[in-house]
Amino acid sequence: MNHICEEIEIWSPCDDILVNNCEQNYALIVLNCRIDLNVDPKKLLNLWRKANLRITVDGGTKRWLKWINAHNFEDRDIAAPDLITGDMDSLPDNVLVYFQEKGSKVIKTPDQNETDYTKSLRELKKHCDMHSIKINTIFVLADTSGRFDQILANINTLFKAPSFLGEKKIYHIASNSITWLLKPGSHKIIIPENLRRDQEWCALIPIGSSCKATTTGLKWNLNNTKLSFGELVSSSNTYNGQPFVTISNDSYLVWSMGIQSIL
């Protein structure tokens, strides 16, 4: 009898982001949200510096400039984004000119049928295709506090992105969490020791449709359990001490995990 071995997708964003162990081809996007990551500023700048492509989105450009000014980085050419995108309704002209003079390319995207974030991903693909830039992963500075509609709009972009970006991994990095979308299939998420030791929170959220999931490595594991709004949602879960979590899911599932213990 022939057996088909299902491929397991491996996820280890904490190492990539916080341990500066990221050897993959990646892009970094700054959305119009506060940038108050409680991580060593040098690590964030290093993540920026090593990116194959760096994009600031509309008002995120102003926030990025404010952040680098607050941390007194002298090499401003390195801090300049490769692309500045958006409808430009929340970006002061002086900030735009400042980065243009340092070589940033500006692409105005006035279409109001999509968010500036979604449009920035489309521009990312165009730019990479045009310049033969290989990108496997996209890190997005997208804090989860503030306006609820924008939080959901960012999650909606995660659902839309595979239709034009394919299999690229997209991580939302907030001040104390990382969030991403798990497609149907089998997954293995590497959990740093500090997060396991401190019982940091994690969650599996079935946005858009119900989902049956089976897990290992959690304090409250699922066994072909149906997750659905109006029924069970696995929020405020944590880890059982294993170095990784496995998840098998039959529909799209949002995974979010606290990272306060390793910042």
Automatic annotation (TrEMBL):
GO MF entry, a single one: kinase activity
GO cellular component: cytosol
InterPro entries from the UniProt entry: Thi_PPkinase, Thiamin_PyroPKinase_B1-bd, TPK_B1-bd_sf, TPK_catalytic, TPK_catalytic_sf
SMART domains per the UniProt record, alphabetical: TPK_B1_binding (SM00983)
Keywords: ATP-binding, Kinase, Nucleotide-binding, Transferase
Catalysed reaction equations from the record: thiamine + UTP = thiamine diphosphate + UMP + H(+)
Keyword Cell membrane among UniProt keywords: no
Family membership noted in the UniProt record: Belongs to the thiamine pyrophosphokinase family.
Name assigned to this protein: Thiamine pyrophosphokinase 1
Natural source organism: Rhynchophorus ferrugineus (Red palm weevil)
